[in-house]
Amino acid sequence: VCFGKISRGTACWNLVRDDNKTMCVTLAVFEMAGNYDNIREAISRVVEGCENYNERVRKPGGFYLPNPPREGKFPTKTGKAQFKSEPLEKIVLAEGRLLLTTIRSHNQFNTTIYDLSDRYRGIEGERRVIFLCPRDIERLSLKAGQVVNLTSHFKDGERHAHRFIVVPYQIPAGCAAAYFPEANPLIPLDSFAERSQTPTSKSVVISIQPTDELAGNFEYDLMEELAAETRVSVART
């Protein structure tokens, strides 16, 4: 989407469709923000499959957007999906270190955070948390709800992010997860993927420095619950 000049509350969007046809839609910015029907109307004139958007979205159950792969349709020479494989780099972690990935919460779009409720993971009212495997929490002598500081380790040195709350979670041992942008300070600007140029936010080697502070509300022993589920899973296998 290419934005034109904004003048007196008016903006022009040049939208390029899949068929390379360009359409220009001029709308009042404040009018769009004040009534989402206006946004949906603009989308219905540009995005294939969204015709009569306002009418269809109000029907019980909404409607499905076109999704050729879901229907087994692939625009390739063979008519089949094509996959490519790449060799994976083996990451060997030093003692006491973890591999951190940054994630979004449920009510988040990129760096826009709509509220502090993450129903995906049961987190309410807080974002400076670090999800850890219960075995790692025990191995590192940490506690659920403990406030810790994080340090990332790259070739050019260390970076720090402070005051994250330990949350036990069903994540593989040796791994950790935290929300972005809160964890962004741990990642160097010049560390990115070879082709996509995206930051290496999914592969950050960190260590954890505990503090004496406790925070968070753990009304039941989640550590024991997860440990019990692990025991059941192992027994079944």
Topology of helices and strands:
Elements: E1 2-3, E2 10-16, E3 22-28, H1 29-34, H2 36-44, H3 53-57, E4 97-103, E5 108-109, E6 112-113, E7 117-118, E8 123-124, E9 129-132, H4 134-139, E10 146-154, E11 157-168, E12 175-179, E13 204-214, H5 222-236
Parallel strand pairs: 4-12, 9-11
Antiparallel strand pairs: 1-2, 2-3, 4-13, 5-6, 7-8, 9-12, 10-11, 10-13
How does this model look, in words?
It is a single chain. The termini are far apart. Mean pLDDT is 82; it is low at 1-11. A hairpin with a 5-residue loop joins β2 and β3 (22-28). The strands form four sheets. The chain has a six-stranded mixed β-barrel. A three-stranded antiparallel beta sheet has the order 1-2-3. 14% of the residues are buried. Helix content is 17%, strand content 30%. By secondary structure, it is of the alpha+beta class. It contains five helices and 13 strands.
Protein structure class: alpha+beta
What is the H/E order?
EEEHHHEEEEEEHEEEEH
The level of helicity is 10-25%
Strand order of the largest sheet: 4-12-9-11-10-13
Q: Which regions have little confidence, pLDDT < 50, spanning 5+ residues?
A: 1-11
Count of separate DSSP helical elements: 5
- Span between termini: 50 Å
Radius of gyration: 23 Å
Question: What is the 3D form?
Answer: globular
Overall pLDDT level: 82
Question: How would you characterize the largest beta sheet?
Answer: 6 strands, mixed, barrel
Strand content: 25-35%
Per DSSP E runs of 2 or more residues, the count of β-strands stands at 13
